Amino acid sequence: MSAGDTTWPWQRLNESNANAHQLLTRLLDPGHGERWLDVGTGGGGLALELAAAGADVVGVDIDEDGLAHARTAAAERGLDVEFVHGDAQRLAFEDASFDGVVSAFGVIFARDRERAALELARVCRPGGRLGLTLMPMNSRTGQTFNILGRFGREGAHPASWEEDLESLLGDAFALESELYESSQPPTWRRPTWEDAVASFEPLRAVVERLDENGVAALRREMEAVEERYAGHAPSFVIALGRRR
């Protein structure tokens, strides 16, 4: 992938997830000087909210393009956040080294869910806190990944974290979760098909493996989901935990 390519529409994702980031930060109420880790930080939206609340934040992601966006966003807001390259399945941090661990629609994309869940628990100190925003299966994005799966996307459905939360993390954390709806419908312009393929890596990866008829069928199904959810406020699940 060239330097000019993008893997996700980072600015739009930060804007569209801002309500979830802000709500999760309020629920966690991080203390000044506490050390927090944002796993799968992407464009850095949640890490910036935690830092603005006074936490000492490290954001980790496997995507260099997202990290570059996050560093720029932090500089623009005058926030001191450390953004580092790393894999959610092999976090380069010592055991129990963070007061809290979070992930906003990030760790759910790890190929090995069980390994990523173990890493979240490993780096969180006893009594520390966990905060996740998760994708409901019955949502625009959840249905989008259903379609991508039918057309050949590999790996577990990212919404399976919400369905399997207890089995993934219940041994390590006392958990609670709740479904929320964003306070307002999305206000951004819906991208064209060409823009979506260029900026949304999971879609592009599927498109590149399909013939012309397959791409046309995929486009019809994707556009039908967009129409079905047009104007609807996004829904998301927030999961909170306390390290046992």
* CATH fold title: Rossmann fold
Order of adjacent strands in the largest pleated sheet: 3-2-1-4-5-7-6
Sheet with the most strands, sense and barrel status = 7 strands, mixed
Top-tier CATH class: Alpha Beta
Give the full name of the CATH homologous superfamily.
Answer: Vaccinia Virus protein VP39
Query: Topology as H/E string?
Result: HHEHEHEEHEHHHEHHHE
Number of folding domains? 1
Detailed description of the structure:
- With about 240 residues, the chain is of the alpha/beta class.
- The protein has a single domain, classed as Rossmann fold (3-Layer(aba) Sandwich), CATH 3.40.50.
- The chain is about 40% helix and about 20% strand.
- It has a seven-stranded mixed β-sheet with strand order 3-2-1-4-5-7-6.
- The N terminus is likely disordered.
What are the salient characteristics of this protein?
7-stranded mixed beta sheet, 244 residues, Rossmann fold, alpha/beta, disordered N terminus
Brief overview, please?
With 244 residues, this protein is an alpha/beta fold.
Secondary structure blueprint with pairings:
Blueprint: H1 10-16, H2 18-28, E1 35-39, H3 45-52, E2 56-61, H4 64-77, E3 82-85, E4 98-104, H5 113-123, E5 124-134, H6 140-150, H7 160-163, H8 165-169, E6 173-181, H9 193-199, H10 201-207, H11 212-229, E7 235-243
Parallel strand pairs: 1-2, 1-4, 2-3, 4-5
Antiparallel strand pairs: 5-7, 6-7
Helix pairs in contact: 2-3, 6-11, 9-10
